[in-house]
């Protein structure tokens, strides 16, 4: 299903270019943008006795990010933000349990505890079964996945007994995403209990060749002078929490543009990108990389969210990455 979502995004972007239609712009954070994105289906570890899920394929994530980044180059505008009520937490366990006694691993903080549901979220990566209810075992696996930011530890009771599982996600989730409460399978009611969620404290890693700045919102870049070229270069939506993938897409975007110069013999170079997480009603929804000709500081981080049709979209974990060696004059390079 994730592969279908990626291909759908790419197809929409490529179709807009071929037909000359306006493409959705994430700087806008308007209905046009959100209607242009397929709604990713929440996912989590499957039921059953499997011991682990597939490895996270970073190369396919990079390929999809580069394909999107080189297919779009367009400007944007300001968002708006309104308030929505908080979701209701799933039912909690009522007594002492492995989940309430568990020790939070170093480098993580406890997001929720002792629920009777497992996390279902669009940022699902993979899962692993473990021999004992020990969050440190999940943390060790999460730390081995470059874009893992959150894990859910829980006990599944099935017809064969109990199995302890860790499911891994690229964006932090909350208690309201613990909606997988079990199902009937072959006449047996599979249940979930002792569900705990843990998120990483660790800041996002530095990216080679770029300087990083923490931002209070998403960048809304604008021309610094009336005669300047529009600095916004489009975006890519990635299925990972790894800003180095954005940097690769930024560099590939410049390389692509250099092979397709304008009639004046110039091309647009990517010198800055904004990496951030987009949340929908408080749950991890998308990871966005927005690309720009020139760097922007925190004073331009004015995009904080948007509300539409009862859904609230907010921005968090936003970082600005400036290329150390700037290219061209205001991002315009003579080929």
From TrEMBL:
Signal peptide: 1-20
Record carries keyword Signal: yes
Region of interest (Disordered), ranges: 35-55, 74-102
Keywords noted in UniProt: Signal
Highest rank taxon of the organism: Eukaryota
Protein name as it appears in the record: Apple domain-containing protein
């Amino acid at each position: 299903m994730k592969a279908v979502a990626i291909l759908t995004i790419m197809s929409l972007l490529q179709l807009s270019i071929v037909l000359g239609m306006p493409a959705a712009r994430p700087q806008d954070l308007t209905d046009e943008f959100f209607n242009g994105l397929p709604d990713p289906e929440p996912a989590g570890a499957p039921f059953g006795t499997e011991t682990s899920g597939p490895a996270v394929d970073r190369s396919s994530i990079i390929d999809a990010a580069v394909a999107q980044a080189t297919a779009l180059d367009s400007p944007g505008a300001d968002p708006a933000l309104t308030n929505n009520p908080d979701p209701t937490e799933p039912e909690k366990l009522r007594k002492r349990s492995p989940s309430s006694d568990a020790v939070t691993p170093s480098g993580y903080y406890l997001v929720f505890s002792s629920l009777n549901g497992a996390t279902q979220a669009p940022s699902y990566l993979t899962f692993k079964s473990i021999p004992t209810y020990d969050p440190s075992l999940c943390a060790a696996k999460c730390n081995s996945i470059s874009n893992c930011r959150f894990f859910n530890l829980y006990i599944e009771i099935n017809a064969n007994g109990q199995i302890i599982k860790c499911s891994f996600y690229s964006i932090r989730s909350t208690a309201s995403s613990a909606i997988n409460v079990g199902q009937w399978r072959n006449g047996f009611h599979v249940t979930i209990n002792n569900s705990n969620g843990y998120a990483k404290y660790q800041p996002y890693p530095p990216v080679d060749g770029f300087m990083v700045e923490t931002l209070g919102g998403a960048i809304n870049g604008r021309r610094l002078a009336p005669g300047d070229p529009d600095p916004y270069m489009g975006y890519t939506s990635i299925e990972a929490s790894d800003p180095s993938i954005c940097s690769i897409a930024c560099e590939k975007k410049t390389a692509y543009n250099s092979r397709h110069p304008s009639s004046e013999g110039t091309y647009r170079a990517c010198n800055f990108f904004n990496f951030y997480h987009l949340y929908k009603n408080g749950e991890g929804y998308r990871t966005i990389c927005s690309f720009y000709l020139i760097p922007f500081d925190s004073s331009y981080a004015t995009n904080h969210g948007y509300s539409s049709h009862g859904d609230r979209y907010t921005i968090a974990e936003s970082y600005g990455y400036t290329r150390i060696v700037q290219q061209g004059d205001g991002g315009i390079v003579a080929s």
